[in-house]
Every structure is written in structure tokens, then in C-alpha cells.
Sequence to fold (234 residues):
Amino acid sequence: MRETSTSAIEARRSGSRIVALGIAAIVMVLGVVSAFLVFTLPDANAFNTRVERIFVENDNLTSEAEIKLLEILAQSGTAFSDTLASYRVVIFILLVFATAMMIAALVFLVGLVVLNRRMAQIERSGIQVSELMISREERTVYINTMGFKLTEAAMETLSILAEARMDDDVLTGAEIEGIISGRDASDCEEAAGATRIKRLRDALGNQLVSELLVKTIARRGYVLAIDKTVIKMV
Fold:
């Protein structure tokens, strides 16, 4: 139990470090990109400066048409300046949005990695059951603090597995079917017992709980993967 807790703590710490480093890398890369974009964009007043230079260098432009042309150029420069300023705002907003999305994606991916590690640890160590109480009258099994209503057939299957676990036995599908049906195991089919196990797992509902609680041992049979001292039958 202590080893599992230590592994979980180490997994969380490792995930936190990865998230921190990833966020720092994302912010740094996007900061460099944003700085490059901002500094490579032309000055918003560059066009107005060129127009002003035209006015200064061509003071002999006195006709009405020429003056009108210069006024149009000046207005175009102002429009260009406003447009460029709005582009800067749009680029900034997009960069902030991209940063947020990349950080969220990183956190999500790291969360999945940590969750997969925890799931793998649970699969290796089995489900931690501190109490398993089977109530035949209520047709309910209580696993820790969770209660599961079972059908009569599922209750019979679970009871047989619990009794076998208390005797340190592993039952094949044929033996399970034989005990329930009252026949000799040699006269029963393995598939019939396997079907009863499947129905029990379906009745328990939660796939993780059922798969880890009712374990299949290759070429041997089925067993409850819990400490036999926590089993109670009422």
C-alpha cells in the first residue's frame, strides 16, 4: 500500500514538473514569435512620414489637383496607420488565445498520462477492498462504501466465488456451473460458467471494479482478487 502511495505521489510530482516546464516552454516560444512579429511589422507612421516627405520635397506642387492628390495620400496614410494598429491588437489577441489553448492541451495530455499511470498501478496491485459484505436477503453486495444490487444468479455466482476465496480455491467455469446447478463439474461446460462470470461483471456495472474484483487466471479459472479476511456473508 505504501509503495502504491509513493508511486502515486511521484507520478503527481512528475506530472507537475512536466506541466511547469511545458508551460514555460510554450510561453517562451510564443513570446519570441510575438516579439518577432511585432518588430518586423512596419511602423504605423511610416506611410505618413513618406507623405510628409513628399510635401516637403515637392513644395512646387501648387495646382488644385496636385494638392488634392497629396491630401488623398495623407488620408491613406492615416487609414494605413489605423489598420496596422488594429492588426497589432488582433495578433496580440490571437497569440494570447494560442498560448491558452496550448497550455490547456498540455495540461490535458499530462493529465491523461498521469491517469494512465495510475490505472496501470491499480491493474498491477488490484482493487483495494477493505470490506466486502454479501447480503443474501437484500441481494446486495457492499464493496467498501459502494452497494451493488444483484440478480439472484449474480448473487449465487458471487457467493460461490467468495466461499472459494475464503478456502483459497480457484474455480473454473465448469466448477462454478456445477456448484450452482448441482451437477458434477465434468458434466458442465466451461462456457456456462464463463457466462455467469460475465453476467456478474455486468451486474456490478463499473467495468474497472468488476474486472479487478473478479480476476481471470489463465488456464486455472476465476477468483476474487481481495484479501479473504475482508469477506463477510450475511
